[in-house]
Every structure is written in C-alpha cells, then in structure tokens.
Amino acid sequence: MRLIFQQEQLPVFQNRMYDNEAEARACPKGDIRLVEDQQTGLIYNAAFRAELMNYDDRYQNEQGASPVFRRHLETVSRILDRSMGRDSLVEVGCGKGFFLEMLLAKGFDVTGFDPTYEGQNPRVLRRYFAAGVDIEARGLVLRHVLEHIQDPFTFLLQLQQANRGKGRIYIEVPCFDWIGEHRAWFDVFYEHVNYFRLADFSRMFGRVVESGRLFGGQYLYVVADLETLRKPTIDLRDPVSLPGDFTRSLTDVGLADCHRAAIWGGASKGVIFALLKARAGHPVGTVIDINPAKQGRYLPATGLLVRSPEDALPELPKGSVIYVMNSNYLEEIKKMSNDAYTYVGIDHE
Questions:
Q1: By CB distance 3.0 to 4.6 Å, which of 12, 125, 193, 249 could disulfide with 28?
Q2: DSSP helix/strand/coil, 85
C-alpha cells in the first residue's frame, strides 16, 4: 500500500442527522488513511472499519429536492435507455426509491433492492440482490453504492453471479480525479471507503460499452458487460496522486468573517467543510439546506443546526458570504436568496 492522504476523526456517517447538539458532537468517528493498493491499483481507506457502519432511518442523503439534481437523474435515465434499454432492469441499493420511481414513471421495467427501503412500492424488495433471487436482469444499475463497499471487486463478482453472469451494469461513483483537480479535501469521507478513477474500470472490465463524467465532472460512470469482469492489476505507468497543495484552502480565511457567513448545503461536503474549518480556527455558524428532512436537525461532529433558507436568510446581513458546497447549485442558490450575498463556490479551482 502507498499512502496518499490522511485525516483523523471524521464522522463515520456524514449524512446521519441528529436531534440535538450534544448527540451530534458525540457521534462515532473514524480515521482516514487513503492508500493505493500496489497490486490492484485501487484506492481505499486502510483505516476503515466496516463494523461501525450501521445505516438506519436517521441516515438522510436524498438530493431529489433540487431541480439541478433531478436534471442529472434525467441524464442518467437517457444513458440507461440507450445502453441497456427499458426492459428488465434492477437497481441495486435503490435507497428511498426516488430514481426508481422516476424510471417507472418513464415506462422502464425496473425492480429495486435495498434492505433499508421505507416506502410501499412492491417493486422494491427489502433485501440484497444476491444469488437465489430468481431475477435475471438485462441490466443492473449501481448508483453511488460501490464507494461504500469494502471489497468492491468481490461485490461486483457477487452481482455477476447473482445475475447468472450475464447482462450489463451501470456504475456511478464520485470521481477521484475531480477531487484532486479541485483540491476538494471536503469530498473525502469516512463513509466512502473506495475512490475511483475511470481507468480503474477499464482494468476491471474487458468491455466498457461507454463511460464518462457527469454532474459537472464530479461523478464518473461506466456501462460495462458483466461477463467481462476481471480482477484489476495496477498500471505502474498511471500512479495515483494528489496535488501537493491539496488542502491549501483549509486554512484560508478567504472573504468571510465567520460571524457573517453561512454554509449552503448540509450534506457530505458541508459536514466535512464545517468540521475541518472549525478545527483550523475559522468556524462558520450558519448552515442552510433546502431538504426538509435535514432542517431542524444537527450536523455530526460540529453540532451545527441545519436551517431552511426562509428561516436563516433574514438573519444573515446582506453581502455576507455564503459558502456554496456544490457549484452545480450556484445559480439555483442565487435565485433562492435573491442574489443578495457574496457567493463562494468551494469547489472552484
């Protein structure tokens, strides 16, 4: 293993919300030791402990409230349509079912698998997709699941076996190259045990049907033939690296007086940004999010209260800095806040 990046005591779940500040500050924490495996070339957190991961109904990661994210999902549906068709699809790890419902409304024949599903749609089975489910899919859909799996190759092998070695698979994960290019230290989470580059999937599959970047480059995707799955081997000509100044913005005070600044986005990026900024001596006291399930609850580690735009903005002086956690939402946020503030996209490089 070759060490790439390390960070101590990050929340185990950056998307779990808490009912009070004390509970949020006392949340479980773990360390990050990102390494490159010198046999497979894959990137993972060597300090990850799977036994700490217990997803429950306090976990909140739904992004469908944003029109920008819904447009992203529309793009994904078109990729599935042209690369797999609309018949006999399975979404593995469908979560709360937002994307599955979108596909069903478009006429896709899709079944979902997720043991944590809370809805009532009979097309979603509250279990894992594994050998013995008696469903042979034309295509498997794996959106933002693989980065959470400790042994991604074995997991893909199990999916291949469960689908009788046939079909195609759509995989969407965060893009490690984008994290490096944008010095996005706030995009390294404990929940994400794996970090991927497009080259990883070219080494993992003998036939990649199509691939590319999505969502402003933050995500990468591949469509591949499951039967061509193979264990990757490292390409020594293409080593993993991060810029030497990867965390340079962490200690920058920037434009913001911390008492006249807000974070817009109480999800993963916002949690890590708020925590590491506070540790660096530049805390931000206001967090805004449009997701009603997050509002009135507290972020892990910092214990910051998440507020709605309607509640928080009247108390924020005009011209104050709003740290935008994801620049994909910048125009949407400006419109919702009447373009009355100074907006800093933290992922602009």
A1: 12
A2: coil
Residues 176 and 341: beta-carbon distance below 8 Å: no
The DSSP bridge partners found for residue 35 are: 3, 44
What is the DSSP pairing of strand 89-92 with strand 43-45?
Answer: unpaired
User: Tokens at residue 322, please?
Assistant: 């709003």
The CA distance from 236 to 190, in Å, is 27
| C-alpha separations of 124 from 93, 129, 316 in Å | 10, 11, 43
As a whole number of Å, the CA-based R_g of the chain is 20
Return the bridge partners of 32, or none: 7
- Could you give phi then psi for residue 257, rounded to 5 degrees? -80, 125
Cβ-Cβ contacts under 8 Å for 267 (sequence gap 6 or more)? 14, 15, 61, 63, 289, 291, 294, 325
For residue range 266-291, list pLDDT tens digits in order. 989 999 999 999 998 888 989 999 99
Q: How far apart are CA 278 and CA 347, in angstroms?
A: 18
Number of alpha carbons in the 13 Å side-chain half-sphere of residue 165: 3
Q: Note the pTM of the prediction, 2 decimals.
A: 0.88
Q: Measured between alpha carbons, how far is 111 from 94 in angstroms, rounded to an integer?
A: 9
In the chain, which ranges are continuous DSSP H helix? 21-25, 67-83, 98-105, 152-162, 176-181, 198-204, 268-279, 309-312, 330-336
Phi, psi (5° rounding) for residue 102? -65, -45
Distance CA 115, CA 104 (A): 20
Sheet with 43-45: strands ordered across: 2-11, 29-36, 43-45, 194-195
Kindly give the interhelix angle for 67-83 and 98-105, rounded to the nearest 10 degrees: 60
Contact in structure between 241 and 299 (CB atoms under 8 Å): no
- Express each pLDDT in 6-26 by its tens digit: 999 999 998 888 999 999 999
In contact, 260 and 317? CB cutoff 8 Å = yes
Residue 281: burial class (beta carbons within 10 Å; 0-12, 13-18, 19+): exposed
The alpha-helical segments, DSSP class H, found in 149-267 are 152-162, 176-181, 198-204
> 253 falls in which pLDDT band (50, 70, 90)?
low
